[in-house]
Amino acid sequence: MMKWLLVGVIVACTVTADLIQAHGMRKGGARWKVPVSILFLALSFFAFTQLLRVAELSFAVPVTAASLVLETALARPVLKERVGWKRWGGAALAAIGVALLAL
Prior knowledge:
Shape: flat
Radius of gyration: 14 Å
Helix content: over 70%
Number of helices: 5
Order of helices and strands: HHHHH
Strand content: under 5%
Number of strands: 0
């Protein structure tokens, strides 16, 4: 249970950091976006170190790839990116891999 909670924190913080950072860098946004994204990346890092205390590395690294799936899904509505079928296919494969780890 604890390891899935940490995975959720890692994925949420990584996705938030990457979206804020991309938005800030592309849109010439407010100066607060990059420091806030660094804060979320730091939270993700510390959650990952705690995950390594309760789970094996061979679980921790692949399961956090769920952030790739969420980032791909949110790239279109948040960043107005065009996401082609190849990217969706890659995200789907990552989602299948994470689902296999959950079994």
